[in-house]
């Protein structure tokens, strides 16, 4: 990663609501803590209002705003493709958000640039079935709030069961959405096709995905298999 890109990411990460330690920043950016200390010092020297306290961490002052972003043609194409994928494969709420994002980005681009809507890349909607899309919004809500869900699930052989899950992430492969989750019944990771979920309830109880039960642990387990 170029140093300029790393400095920009530090400012972006510190713009959130939480204080971040040098160790956490170093983990996210895959550099040493000494590098983070040096980068933060340079940012402060250049006028970036970063507040920090030893043993606590860093935070960007709330009244600071990043300058407007400028995208290259390739970056604009990447945004257009990604947003079109969301529009073609997601639930109605996320599809609408993608359309609005595409319109907002398109509106602020200089007139001399090619419109995002005219980008020569076609992303077909694979006519994802309503049964596949139906649980998406509920699962996104549950993942955002780290809330458990109860689902009625029908396996490929027709056997049905009820499960309490910790929804960790969703993957779109082939032409179907799959939920990666920690299953309390099996006390292990399990995958669930969304079109086989007959019903879903978001529970008030929250989960704390500790080491061994995180999405990254699920990914590591799948890669080992």
TrEMBL record:
Q: Which domain of life is it from?
A: Bacteria
InterPro entries recorded for this chain?
CBASS_pafABC_assoc_protein, HTH_11, WH-like_DNA-bd_sf, WH_DNA-bd_sf, WYL_dom
Q: Which residues form the WYL domain?
A: 136-200
Where does the Helix-turn-helix type domain lie? 6-59
From the Swiss-Prot or TrEMBL record, give the protein name: YafY family transcriptional regulator
């Amino acid at each position: 990663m170029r140093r300029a890109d790393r400095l920009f990411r530090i400012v972006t990460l510190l713009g959130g609501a939480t204080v971040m330690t040098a160790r956490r920043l170093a983990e996210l950016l895959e550099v040493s803590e000494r590098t983070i200390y040096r980068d933060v010092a340079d940012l402060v020297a250049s006028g970036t209002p970063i507040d920090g306290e030893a043993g606590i961490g860093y935070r960007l002052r709330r009244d600071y705003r990043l300058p407007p972003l400028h995208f290259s043609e390739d970056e604009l194409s990447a945004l257009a493709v990604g947003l079109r994928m969301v529009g073609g494969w997601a639930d109605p709420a996320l599809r609408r958000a993608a359309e609005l994002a595409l319109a907002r980005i398109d509106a602020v681009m200089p007139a001399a640039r090619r419109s995002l809507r005219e980008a020569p890349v076609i992303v077909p909607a694979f006519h994802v079935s309503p049964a596949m899309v139906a649980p998406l919004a509920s699962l996104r809500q549950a993942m955002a709030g780290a809330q458990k869900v109860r689902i009625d699930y029908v396996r490929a052989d027709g056997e049905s069961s009820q499960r309490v899950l910790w929804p960790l992430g969703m993957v779109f492969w082939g032409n179907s959405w799959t939920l990666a989750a920690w299953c309390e019944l099996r006390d292990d990771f399990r995958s669930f096709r969304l079109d086989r979920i007959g019903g879903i309830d978001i529970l008030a109880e929250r989960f704390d995905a500790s080491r061994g039960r995180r999405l990254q642990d699920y990914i590591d387990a799948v890669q080992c298999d």
